[in-house]
Design a protein that fits this description.
Helices cover 23% and strands 0% of the residues. It has 70 residues and is mainly α.
Length: 70
């Protein structure tokens, strides 16, 4: 090995902010009751999210009151 071990990592940080970096998924404003209870990632689709649709469960969205958000 002619180069120091760290030389191969020199260009990694140069590309960290590039357009090729992985996208951060957008946060769903409200999860359905099933996804919330099972702590699953809810896609927020209406009338039925993909998790409920796949399992055949009724998909229910309950609005969160303002007092609970604080």
């Amino acid at each position: 090995m002619s180069q120091p071990m760290y030389a191969q990592y020199d260009n990694v940080q140069a590309h960290a902010g590039s357009e090729d970096s992985p996208r951060v998924p957008r946060r769903t404003p409200m999860a359905c009751q099933f996804c919330r209870g099972r702590k699953l990632k809810c896609d927020g689709s209406r009338p039925s999210c993909s998790n409920c649709h796949r399992r055949g469960y009724p998909c229910q969205y309950v609005p969160v009151s303002v007092e609970q958000q604080k």
